[in-house]
UniProtKB/TrEMBL annotation:
GO BP terms in the entry: cell wall organization; cellulose biosynthetic process
Protein name: Uncharacterized protein
PANTHER family, per the entry: X-BOX TRANSCRIPTION FACTOR-RELATED
The keyword Transmembrane helix appears for this protein: yes
Compartment(s): Endomembrane system
Gene Ontology MF terms: cellulose synthase (UDP-forming) activity
The organism's taxonomic lineage, starting at the top: Eukaryota, Viridiplantae, Streptophyta, Embryophyta, Tracheophyta
Record key words, sorted: Cell wall biogenesis/degradation, Glycosyltransferase, Membrane, Transferase, Transmembrane, Transmembrane helix
Membrane spanning residue stretches: 72-94, 101-121, 141-162, 183-207, 219-241, 253-273
Pfam family, one: Cellulose_synt
One GO CC annotation: endomembrane system
Source taxon at top rank: Eukaryota
Length: 292
């Protein structure tokens, strides 16, 4: 419609024009986010993709950019999942995410972090959102990114390549009030990736501290940074840690079993393979010739 000349206005009345109730159960909420992300991926891979649809029409570039942002956002699941796994990889291998950088680069990085923090504070003030709600949104952004958005990418590719429509679970619109069920878990495969990432980082913390104690307490500052990044991931995935430790509303056993298996496989692979280690220690061909 916009590409054909439709002009919209921004309307925000004092009285809410539309009201709805989102599911407070974490499993149902993830299924709802999966449904939305599937739609975005399907539009991205269709002939109506906003990247090229309506070129030469009346769609303005800022409008096109807004539409592109609303369709490509599930793709952030790939780097987000990678960054959630990297702290554990660094603790397993003894390497670090960041290479040695100069003072100018360090100041630039700190300035970027402060600007992001300032942006979050301004958004909280403008939207009149409390710090509890903001932090809950940050947690769910990570949880949804490493689960629902990740599943939506693969299911969208299956839909585009095979024309098979993956099924999704509809969510209940019944208002249950408050956040009493926020940490309740029901079986869904969407719970496995974040729980696996949580366990990998917990195992990485233990492995990193054990390696530090055995190495004679060297490079404690680097270890502190590694533990900080791993702890940051664990804090964002805290609802799953609470589900593992709680006696009530406990996480389904099948989710725990699959997550433990995947975490152990991942950990053992890094311990045995360790791709950052150079295994060839003998002389080269140039040094000893054909007799090597």
């Amino acid at each position: 419609m916009h590409s054909r000349g439709w002009r919209s206005i921004y309307c925000m009345p004092k009285r809410a024009a539309f009201k709805g109730s989102a599911p407070t159960n974490l499993s149902d909420r993830l299924n709802q986010v999966l449904h939305w992300a599937q739609g975005s991926i399907q539009i991205l891979l269709s002939q109506h993709c906003p990247i090229w649809y309506g070129l030469g029409g009346r769609l303005k570039w800022l409008q096109r950019l807004a539409y592109i942002n609303s369709t490509v956002y599930p793709l952030t699941a790939i780097p987000l999942t990678t960054y959630c796994a990297l702290p554990a990889v660094c603790l397993f291998t003894g390497k670090f995410i960041f290479p040695s950088i100069s003072l100018v680069a360090s100041i630039t990085f700190v300035g970027l972090c402060l600007s992001i923090l300032a942006t979050n504070i301004l958004e909280m003030r403008w939207s009149r959102v409390g710090i509890d709600e903001w932090w809950r949104n940050e947690q769910f952004w990570v949880i949804g990114g490493v689960s629902a958005h990740l599943f939506a990418i693969f299911q969208g590719l299956i839909k585009a390549l095979t024309n098979i429509d993956p099924s999704f679970h509809s969510t209940s619109s019944k208002d249950r009030g408050g956040f009493s069920e926020l940490y309740m878990f029901r079986w869904t495969s969407l719970l496995i990736p974040p729980t696996t990432l949580l366990m990998i980082n917990l195992i990485g913390l233990i492995a990193g501290i054990s390696s530090f104690m055995e190495s004679g307490h060297h490079a404690w500052s680097i270890l502190f940074c590694k533990l900080f990044f791993a702890s940051w991931v664990i804090i964002h995935l805290y609802p799953f840690l609470r589900g593992l430790m709680s006696h009530q509303n406990r996480m389904p056993t099948i989710v725990v079993i699959w997550s433990i298996l995947l975490a152990l496989i991942f950990s053992l692979l890094w311990v045995n393979i360790n791709p950052f280690t150079i295994r060839v220690t003998g002389p080269t061909v140039e040094q000893c010739g054909i007799n090597c």
